[in-house]
Amino acid sequence: MQVVEAADLSDGDACGYVQDLSLDLQVGVVKPWLLLGSQDSAHDLETMKKYKVTHVLNVAYGVENAFPDDFTYKTISILDLPETDIVSYFPECFEFIEQVKLKSHFIMQDAFVRPVETLDDLPLMKSSTS
């Protein structure tokens, strides 16, 4: 694992990310019709087929859709920074998830690492408020 830091920041604050070169093919079952996976799992055709994925909500910034001929994608590029207002993206994500749910398909959300109450939690947040 390697930590990469941005240079030339004012205030002396460092911001960076942890570069993880290990393959992460884990898939979490949030609901029977909603899966949560990493960009690695979303880029592994065998994993996608194993879980019978039909639709992908890709919220990763700068990550291309790996299999556009095999799956239906909704791409919402969200920059993973503390100042990013991810809540403003929730309605568009909810709409896609609900449309797919009504068709009884499966979704894999191409996730990024954030603290609690992030896009990873949005389906549960919405269902707990409705």
Automatic annotation (TrEMBL):
Protein's recorded name: Dual specificity phosphatase 19
Protein species of origin: Sphaerodactylus townsendi
